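Form 12-C: Joint structure prediction
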Amino acid sequence: MRWINIALGVAVAGIICFFAVRELLIDPMYFFELFLGGLTRGSIYALIALGYTMVYGIIQLINFAHGEIYMIGAMTALIVASVLGMWGWNTAVIVILAFVFAIVYSCAYGFTVEKIAYKPLRNAPRLSALISAIGMSLFLQNYVMLAQTPEYLPFKSLIPDFKFWEPFAHIITSVEITIIVTTVIVMILLGILIKFTRIGKAMRATAQDKVMSALLGINVNNVISATFVVGSATAAIGGVLIACHVGQINFFIGFLAGLKAFIAAVLGGIGSIPGAVLGSLVLGISESYFTGYFYSEYEDVFAFTILVIILIFRPSGILGRHDAQKV
Amino acid sequence: MKSFFKVLAVAVLSMIVFAAPGFASDTVKVASAGVISGDLAPYGISALRGVEIAVEDLNAKGGILGKKIELLVGDDVCKPEVAVNIATKLVSDGAQMIVGHVCSGATIAANKIYKDANLLIASPASTNDDLTFSGEHPNFFRTIANDGAQAILMTDFVKNEIKAKKVALIHDKGDYGKGQMELVRNNFEKMGGVEIVLFEGVTTGAVDYTAIVQKIKRSDAEVTMWGGYHSDASKIVQLLKKKRVDTTFFGADGIIGDNFTNLAGKYAEGVYATGPNDTSGNPLYQALSAKHQKKYGEDPGTFFHNGYACMQALAAAAEKAGSLDYDAMRAAMFEITIDSPLGPIGFDEKGDVVGAGFSVYKVIDGKYQQVN
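Section 2 - Result
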């Protein structure tokens, strides 16, 4: 069985490589542009997927309200930027304040959601917490719809078009570069936070064994809250940047983006931070090539096919841990 | 004694059952159904307001057949499965005529219910060809021209005015958008002389359309035609401009109106779209716009005047028929000509509107302006 699997894998990889090399030779520019497009898309997924994966790593909960936290971040930035813009403030100040407010607001929401919807269910069966998460997601969507508006709102890009980049803007825009660079920075910062700081050490301990870490004097509740706050902050940054890229937001954007990011996190191995980024990039780049060379109508079908194939061969994702887990 | 109670119970129950449809009601119940929540709500709300104001005007003149009109409202969220539930509810609430729905997919699904209940339906916004061409919807009328007419206008304009040789057709995979683009494709194939270099569907609401934009760029299409609604269109238009793709964007009535120009901002400049004829010179049109402005504090939306015309048409048919009987009203629908805000309109034998058509618009200085 094992040999058949390997042979099959090699055959598929060979076919893909053949087509890739052929297309690369025919039109290298197009190939490269699709790669950059996929990289941007992957980075977009990654900014959201990081929050999913962190929370899952610690309390094995799929936080379905995460997409909504992302949406609230973008909404907050829009409101702050519009108000300050009306008062005629300096653009740079507006950008910084919009980001700060978005992050603070999203963190507050993430923190509160955990306290209200997940903490009371910490020792309940996992399904209860999952249903609570879905409920929270619906609640936040409808709350924003009623409090704001059901219509799409234009989101004026906060990232200016860099002057020096003008000659290359048709290949990759300033916003897209910002998204890619930010994803890399956020991933490195998260890596440092988890590897080298006290709270990071506590997070890793809690992830391994909640009871044991509590016995050793770690305040597990605080650690979990901190995880939600950090995850929400990355979602807020993602929300603002993606809204700049897309140019519009409404109450529903968190659902679809969250779904794709969740798939990316599972693909990369949920619970692992490099895994979330890798999974997002794999998903983004392969979707981009599929649309570019085949047929965009079945883009989503293709994304899910990749997910199924990878989960057949590596049930815990590309970089996932190998211990048996029930979801 | 026991059997007497049984008989009594049956008698009482049957009275309740037979009384339910509301024989003795002294109002005419009109239902307005469409999308009034969610991201397409602006379309449905504009139509609903048209009906509301029409009902006010009619009631001020004494209603239909001497009875006041009572308005029932249904929200289908533009989803066919919800539309069926809403239709069932409206029928059981005693609706006697329907204005709606807005999204074509929802109208097609809901009309099964209305047809079985022998109710006339007039839609202010559903443009799908099947509704009038298939012959399966004899009770259906509309105050907006159909997709077929719109597609012919689009293809003629692209070929003769823009003089494009290569076009890309992109749609959102929905009943309305994909249907529209298929009609356009058929027309181009019949006419010849224009090459279709791309025919693709995209996922609505996706976070990123870079790949499809790169594909349009590679296809060298001079015109990119879009079948779908305004929010995805604005994302694609922005990316096309940012990536400096040299192509003209051309949409249908799904992107007409301020919704699109507000969303896409400066990137909307130069976009073409087809939409209902500009009838803003009509005195009734202006009076109604003023009334809308006074009542709701803003300018009327896309389907406001079409909604008003639907209500007018149904009321006129009932008056002409002299009753609310289905067959008499349906026969009357073909004979009436009404002074609507869209000008004098009537209906042809398929239920399509006569006297209201489409024109081509272009975004100039941030606003749609008629160009032909």
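Section 3 - Comments
Chain A has a mean pLDDT of 89. The radius of gyration of chain A is 21 Å.
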